[in-house]
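Q: I'm writing a short explainer about Radical SAM domain protein for a general audience and would like to include a description of its predicted shape. Could you first generate the structure from this sequence?
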Amino acid sequence: MKHLFGPVPSRRLGLSLGVDLLPFKTCTLDCVYCQLGPTTCLTLAREERVSTAEVLEEIRSLSEKGSDRVGHGDGGAGAAGAVEFDYLTLAGSGEPLLHRGLDEIIRGAKEAVDKPVALLTNGTLFFREEVRREVLEADLIIPSLDAATAPTFKRINRPHPDLSIDDLLEGLVRLREEFSGEIWLEVMLVKGINDGEAPLIAEAAERIGAERVQLNTVVRPPADPVQPLSPEEMEEMLEFFSGAEVIADWGRDLSKTTEVLIRDLLTRRPCTLEELSSLSGLHRNEILKYLEVLEAADEIRRLRHEGRLYFRAREG
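A: Of course. Here's the predicted structure. Afterward I'll give you a sentence or two in plain language.
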């Protein structure tokens, strides 16, 4: 399928079937920790980024195979049987809020499959009333909050020049007032960049009033060479956040067949994320989970060449 990917295992969402609504790396931010690499299209312009009709056609095809089943293997429906999923998740290659017509996709998805719809977002456009209105029928929204002050916002999220931390915070507060579903607020903590601002971020999170506050750190290959907090340091961060939980996952149990495939590809030659996706037939977000496991096991390493991020197997 062109717009659906996975299902991929998620600590928070079980098996998540992704819906990608953006051309690769179209976003309102250029976060230093982004697992997809640097933002190539930094914008606030909302438009129909992909064909809404095509997306809905793919989602509706799921009900033809069973209300909660989709083909999985080599990137295509029906290619290797069917697997169940727990959430249909709007996510993927950029910021989903930049796609105009989210309400139509959410409504169509809920009519087509009997599964909850989640939205993964950086939350930057919720200060716009039209954006909040388009997401009201979702079941779960997971926005991000990585800063509480303008200097840290610029340092960690590198936003579009017309975005401010005040707009971001106000938008999340207004979303909580208007949205009847659950909000799980994710806070990405990066060593030496925003961890010192944790008490202020905690105060902002309290003001937003999300059902859950989830603390994360850099466990997947980031856009810039930034450092994660250790498990012990993450536990210490809980002192600042009321009722929060740590969701950073330093290891995963994934398909051994796919893991071997990716390891073999990287043994032959260094590859970018895009090249691995093309060679394996898997979506970039799926590939990242395997890279995370292989890097944690010290089986692969990263290198940069002419501004591009490559992965290669360690020798010996």
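A: For your explainer, you could say: The first strand starts at residue 4 and ends at 10.
Q: Perfect, that's easy to follow.
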